[in-house]
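To whoever is on call:

I kicked off a structure prediction for a single chain this morning and the downstream step that reads the tokens threw a length-mismatch warning. I double-checked the sequence; it's 288 residues and nothing unusual in it as far as I can see. Pasting both halves so you can look.
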Amino acid sequence: MAGLNVSIAFFLSVVAICEVIRQVSKRLLPLGVYRGLVRELLRMLMEIGPWGGGFGPDVILTLLFITYLIHGVSFDGASANPTISLQEFLVMDSSFVATAVKLLVQFVGMEAAGILTTHYWSWELTDFHLIQNLMALDCSSSIHTSLYHGIFVEGVCSFFFHLVALKFQHSHPLYRAPVLAVIVTTLAYIAGPFTGAFFNPTLASIITFDCSGNILQEYVQVYWLGPLTGMLAALLLYQGNIPRLFQKNLFYSPKSKYRTPKGKAVPGLKQTGGNGEGQLQLRTKPWS
């Protein structure tokens, strides 16, 4: 129980420190710098939080839900996920330069989070951390299934996550955050035994890419190709096109902006046919 309390205290401390730095940065830095750099970096630090505790799946899932809940409410749209940043680029909500900066900062945040967590484990405040230090020397792969099934699992997780995110993208954060937290936690519970259910390339890179059991190419296929494919499929299904690549809608016909009202004939108007088209003539009385 003491170990759990220490781990939760670490998690809450990271959340509190990141929130303070975020608020200060938002006031002191230019808006573009804050949006593109600081909030992505800080969210990446928070993203690693639950994995830094070194405790069981039930607590991991609980903290995962709480983390996404806090992120959704407070982090001003930061994603800490390359697939979300690329999705914003593909729907033309973000420029190429802004997207490149986000991706770069996400990797910087990933490395910073890894260093922070490793340093925290080195204190060995609990037995969990001692075990984590031993496991870090020779960790095993999170892929516990075949390569193609792993790609499929990560792709399906990413597909459902992005589909729900697109559906609620314009909803108020108080409604959107719990929905995303539930879908992420549910997917992690279902798919976790197969691949870890990361569906976040940066998070997967820091957690499992250095572990034995699979080569780098296999990790990239499962944790990069799978989520990216799922994101593209969700985007295509949701709106029928990918604006950055092509404008033609493959699935849905555009709805007319105007409606033609249906009503009774107006007295004094006479409809006549001509060249297959209806014409309206006004009947007037001659001057007496």
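Update from on-call: the warning came from a stale cache, not from the record. Cleared it. Sanity check on the structure: The radius of gyration is 26 Å.
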